[in-house]
Amino acid sequence: MIPDSARIGSVPYLNAVPLTCGLEGRCSFLTPSALAVELRAGRIDAALLSVTEALFAPGYPIVDGVAIASDGPVFSVFLAHQDPLDERLTEVHLDPASCTSVNLLRVLLAARGLSPRFIPLTGYEAHRMPRNALLIGDPAIRFALGPHGHRIWDLGAAWKEWTGLPFVFAVWAVREVAATRVLADGLRAARESGLRRLAEWVEARPEFTRAFREAYLGGHIRYGLGEREKAGIERFCRELDTHIRPRRPSVAPRYF
Residues 6 or more apart from 55 whose CB is under 8 A from it? Predict the structure, then answer.
């Protein structure tokens, strides 16, 4: 059981539902970028955090065994584009709520020798969508399922095709002072409970259609953090350091 004093944060997206099973009433639901701010400020103790933030913020142990990942198409993180994925791609709009997805896109484009100009995205309305935009989460799904004139470059599929590895989008990151076995076990138990209720989520959740929920929760999204997922994280670290050269090098993840 998670300690009563532990403050938990998660994302308000369908893909996180199985990981917050039983914790809904005590979770703060925020965008990935806002969760990173709250965790850094010490206003929450554990967050379902974009993996990039965990890798570039020393002091965030990662709960072993739990993640939001894909081993191929993820469907909720993609570049909606009208320009070809070559030198004609000179400008991309970015959802400001994203963290890891931005860096994954930058790595995948850099591997193709591309470095477009990035601009904040102001909205998801299909009729106002820029020619090229990185979209994430439930709003991205709604865009993809609706009428639009864009091609979809699924970043989970692109990563798997390039590396042969799963991609981990989010992990439970914990402030050092709160990183106890009790908390980690409680978050792992929430995952197990959520996976046991997966059929219930597929039937009862209001988002999208039943067929989509079944494909998405039961296939596109993976909730484990095993050796292949950890290898994917290590590869992502190397690609970030090679292609992005951030102000701070990534740190080796610490699992507990």
Answer: 233, 236, 237, 240, 250, 251, 253
Asked whether 62 and 173 are in contact (CB, 8 A), the reply is yes
pLDDT score for 253? 86
Pairing relation of β-strands 132-136 and 91-94?
parallel
- Which of 255, 245, 249, 213 minimizes the C-alpha distance to 56? 249
For the chain, which residues make up each domain, given as ranges? 8-69+167-244, 77-163
- Nearest Cα residue to 144 out of 215, 204, 85: 215
Q: Which helix (H) or strand (E) holds 193?
A: helix 181-196
Intervals of the chain under pLDDT 50: none
**Within 10 A of 73 (CB to CB), how many other CB atoms are there?**
18
Question: What pLDDT does 33 receive?
Answer: 86
Total number of residues shown for the chain = 256
- Interior angle at CA 144, CA 95 and CA 194, nearest 5: 80
Contact 8, 44 (CB under 8 A): yes
In CATH terms, 77-163 corresponds, of 3.40.80.10, 3.40.190.10, 3.40.50.150, 3.40.50.620, to 3.40.190.10
CATH of 8-69+167-244, one of 3.30.365.10, 3.40.50.1110, 3.40.50.2300, 3.40.190.10: 3.40.190.10
Residue-level pLDDT at 180: 94
| Residue 175: closest CA among 81, 88, 254, 85 | 254
In this structure, which amino acid lies at residue 249?
A: P
Residues 6+ apart with CB under 8 A from 185: none
